[in-house]
What does this fold into?
Amino acid sequence: MLSTISEMLSFTFIQRAIIVGVAVSICSALLGVSLVLKRYSMIGDGLSHVGFGILAISTAFGLSSPLYIAIPGVAIFAIILLKIGNNGKIKSDSAIALLSSSALAIGVAVTSLTTGMNTDVCNFMFGSILAMNAEDVILSVLISIFVLVIFIVFYRKLFIMTFDEEFATAIGLNTERYKNLIAILTAITIVIGMRMMGTLLISSIIIFPALTAMRIFKNFKKVVIHSGIISVSSFLIGLYLSYIYNISTGATIVLVNLVFFIVFWLLDKIIYE
It folds into this structure.
């Protein structure tokens, strides 16, 4: 096992994958707790489709750094989703389906008319640890640090808003602002994680760790901490197994997350029932 790990670490693309994967895993797990508790779980899936559309279009037009376009673009879409969902005329799940499917269709259509489904576009859809270059790693790490700092600074206010929005409003918190903050942080986390996990799987690493931690831990702080631990552990184990068995990295990470969820679910049944 140690020799295999040593062999893995000798490859530059594995080193890049670990750096980005750990950073994204921590950010997605922290944000996932609030998203699950606020019942915004599907926003991650919707934003990943929007991200694919923007990245695919950027690639089709030959932009060298599509992430710089996708991050603000997906963040804007995240705010739009919340606005549409809150206006009462269209439910949030319908708004997500409307915008995400439209963005995905536009991305596929533009790609078909220009470059076709090339390697870069397939990497956005299914993920690839080979897709990340040094610039992507630096950008991903800087953004992850930004997300973590913002989450820590506003932790108390996010906690209050997550559990009791009416109380948060009563004490003077601008709940709309913090909803937008969560949506924006989720959007940029999804974009930087898509290069590795792909559009189809990125939302799973936001939802799974939070749901898993909630099976055992009932305190918000403990759920946040253990969600991060589960997320990073799932990523590292998944990366190791994908290397050994030559399986898709994103799919393996999700499957490891599923195993963690089943184990914690069984423990929950044993401990609390």
About this structure: The two ends are 38 Å apart (CA to CA). Residues 12-37 form the longest helix (26 residues). The mean pLDDT is 81. Residues 201 and 251 are 7 Å apart (CA to CA).
